[in-house]
Amino acid sequence: MSSLTEQIKERLDIVTYIQQYVPSVKKAGRTYKACCPFHGEKTPSFVINPDNQTWRCFGACSTGGDIFNFAEKMHGWSFSEALNELGRQAGVEVRKQTPAQAEQDKQQDRLRGMLKTAAEYYHTWLLANNAAAQPVLQYARQKRGFTDATLAEFQIGYAPNDWQTMLNTLKSLGYTETEVLAAGLASKNERGNVYDRFRQRLMLPIRDERGRVIGFGARALNPEDEPKYLNSPQSVVFDKSRTLFGLDKAKDAIRASGTAVIVEGYMDAIQAHQAGYRNVVAQMGTALTETQLKLLVPRYAQKIILALDADAAGQSATRRSLEVARQTLAEDYTGKLAADIRILQMGDTAKDPDDVLRETPEKWQGYVDAARPVADFVIDMETAVLSSGSTIQEREAIARRLLPILTVSEDNLYRQDNLQKLALRLRLQEQDLLAWADELKRIDAARRPKMTPERPKQDNTIEPPPFNDDGWESANSEEPPPFFPDDAEISPIDDEDMPLPVDLFPARTAKTPRLTAQHTNREMEAYGLRLLLIQPGLIYQVNRKLRELTQDDEMLTTGPLADFQPEDFSQSDFRSLAVLLFKALEQSDTDPLTFVQYHLEMELHHELETLLQPEETLLTNKLNGRMTGELADIWEKHQRQLRPNKAGNHEDIRRVLALRWLRLRRDKQDIYFLQVDAEQNRNTAELQQYMTHHRLLSQAWHRLNQLLSSPLLGLN
Fold it and tell me: Would residue 520 count as lying in a domain?
């Protein structure tokens, strides 16, 4: 049975999907091309291959993949988010639901529909030409400074000064009183009376990052009403700690700039968008939460700028937000959340972002550009109370409060610079600060829960032997013919002309038919990934061989023969697993496979379990019930042929290097059709660019082909 990703790709055409977001896509031979949507360019370098259902940017991005990878990059989704959304579009059930879960999803959709309807009614009531609405509209336009375009974009509305206007309206549309209460649009008192939660307030719809209304922020219009801002209560569709106001409208600008500016209130965010600063969102609460930070990093932003109010409460909220960020980053074993966090301060004006954006919007970008590093801000804030005669105990107390924030970065130069600043300000020795920082780190590590995931139940020492159409090769068998045939310098690449290295991959017999490239790519990638998961050290041997192939040619070293990377996997689920494996190799707290198991997204657990099945099980599944009588003999023969401590694991290195060979073949095919299209259109500049790229790919491919044709890969 095909995997979920394969089922989805069979139902969704990649060209049709990408054209929704890149309308300029046009046919170029057997492929399609356009200017890359992920970076600015004039010469099209973005290619879609409908035969392979893949895309590739040959420009600055130098990346590619399948429909899942495109969706992840375009929308800032994780793999699981892309899987669920594309599965929904394809009509493929990603998660099997119980009847209760299906009913719960249906109810949540109904509540979101009700909230959307409520937002429309509130907006209509604001624009109504009556005595009650006119003063509110005047307040929104004059006091808050909102234009009509802003009122429409954010669907700002008005809740009438009445006890049951919204309740009765929704009931007339078929919603029940229970549903209105569940959505947070009504409240019930001790006597059991149900009434509108929002009355005589300016209504600001709160949306999730997909633009669905999930709640409201309501600003009091009567000075005597408390609180000044009233939010929707927590519900099955609204959780303020997991929401950033305006993210649905800001995410594209944040992704483009790599920077997210976080303000304190709704009005600040709306004013920023009205002034043209679209990368601004508002936190929902008195301090940033871990979940809110993860909404931004790494999917959209690499830099976070906190622009909270200038009063004491705002400064306190900034301090709490920094502590949340510090703890989150410290516990980020994968390094995914690494971000440059800065603090925006508006000089000595003591004004809030809302004031500055309304009165002098042209100054805002200058304040953003001048945002201070966290170290400078917290050192200034904490040491402001120190006198020239402060005691060593007072200075040590401040140092211990600041060290967790100042040393959270893994960049040694950054850490050292922070410690030097703190030592100078507190008149302390750097060695003392380092000792205290190490002590605090040990204490923090001791408090963390230990990772104890169950280890895979298999013998990881088994090394798969060569295996071809004739069965298992013996240790003394004659070496196979050259691995791959020669490639014409400028010609399309057909699978028939370049057979795949099926002899490298196990679980094949003389009675099983030879598979085509379309069918075996996934099988080959699965086996290569399995090898890397079980023997992570292979990656270093593979990289050594790639570096030898470059012969110190910088173009090859940074291009087609660069170190092995997750992009060498064309299958999106395998690539996501590879990304996590590479992160695992960057840390030393736990072994790589345990790290991968611990941090894996739920949707990939089954795929990992399948990859880590014992080889005897894989062979049994591959034979699919055939040759059951011969299976024991085949496996026993395989065990006898294993050669312990085989130098360099050269067959396994070949199997992993074959994945780069496949990638280069795909790239050569795509660039060839771009070249033909440019030649037909007499576009000299494009043709020259594509020919240069094709020659580099061909050079790399020939070198790798020659290496893979060598039985022992030059290993001793």
Answer: yes
Residue pair 299/71 in contact by the 8 Å Cβ criterion: no
SS3 475: coil
Structure tokens at 170: 């929704």
- Which tokens belong to 433? 């600060």
Q: Which of 421, 411, 349 is nearest to 382 (CA)?
A: 421
Partners of residue 262 on adjacent β-strands = 281, 306
What's the number of domains the chain is made of? 4
In this structure, what token pair is assigned to residue 505?
């991959």
Before 227, cis peptide (omega within 30)?
yes
Flag whether pLDDT at 460 surpasses 80: no
Q: Could you give the C-alpha distances from 600 to 597, 603, 692, in angstroms and in order?
A: 5, 8, 40
Choose among 473, 475, 478, 409: nearest CA to 437.
409
Instruction: Tell me the backbone φ, ψ of residue 204, rounded to 5 degrees.
Output: -120, 105
Residues 512 and 594 in one domain: yes
Mapping DSSP to helix (H, G, I), strand (E, B) and coil, where does residue 31 land? strand
Q: Tokens 């509540």 appear where? A: 111
Residue 272: which of 207, 339, 152, 360 has the closest Cα?
Answer: 360
Helix (H) or strand (E) run with residue 86 in it: helix 79-90
Q: Which of 615, 610, 525, 609 minimizes the C-alpha distance to 564?
A: 525
Alpha-carbon dihedral angle through residues 120, 126, 131, 137, given to the nearest 10 degrees: -170
What's CA 102's distance to the chain center, in Å? 27
382 touches 323 (CB < 8 A):
no
Mark whether 494 and 607 lie in a shared domain.
yes
For 374, the token pair is: 């966290």
Backbone angles phi, psi at 186, to 5 degrees: -140, 160
Longest dimension (CA), the chain: 96
In a domain, residue 449? The reply is: no
Q: Is the pLDDT of residue 203 over 80?
A: yes
Answer whether 63's CB lies under 8 Å from 42's CB. no
- Please work out, in degrees rounded to the nearest 5, the angle formed at the alpha carbon of residue 189 by the alpha carbons of 185 and 190: 155
Look at residue 488 and tell me if it is in a domain.
yes
Q: Of 620, 682, 392, 658, which is closest to residue 529 (Cα–Cα)? A: 658
247 and 224 within one domain: no
Strand partners, 57: 46
pLDDT in tens, 686-714: 888 888 888 999 899 889 988 887 765 54
* Angle at CA of residue 517, ends 511 and 522, nearest 5°: 90
First to last CA, the chain: 41
| Nearest in space to 422 (alpha carbons), one of 399, 445, 441, 444 | 399
Domain's final residue, options 370, 389, 420: 370
- Judged by DSSP in three states, 568 sits in helix
Q: Which pair of tokens denotes residue 430?
A: 């750097």
Residue 170 has pLDDT above 60, yes or no: yes
- β-bridge partners, 472: 467
Q: How far apart are CA 280 and CA 107, in angstroms?
A: 32
pTM (predicted TM-score):
0.63
Question: What's the CA gap between 532 and 517, in Å, rounded?
Answer: 22
pLDDT confidence bin for 361, thresholds 50/70/90: very high
288 and 196 co-located in one domain: no
CB 643 within 8 A of CB 466: no
Q: How are beta strands 372-373 and 340-343 bridged, if at all? A: antiparallel
Query: Is 647 found in the same domain as 523?
Result: yes
Residue 79 sits in the same domain as residue 157: no
Cα angle: 401, vertex 403, 406; to 5 degrees: 125
Phi, psi torsion values for 364, nearest 5 degrees:
-60, -45
Contact 269, 263 (CB under 8 A): yes
CA 216 to chain centre: 28
Which DSSP letter does residue 491 get? S
- Range of 473's domain? 467-623+641-709
Give the model confidence (pLDDT) of 83-120 as tens digits.
989 988 888 877 766 788 778 888 999 999 999 999 99
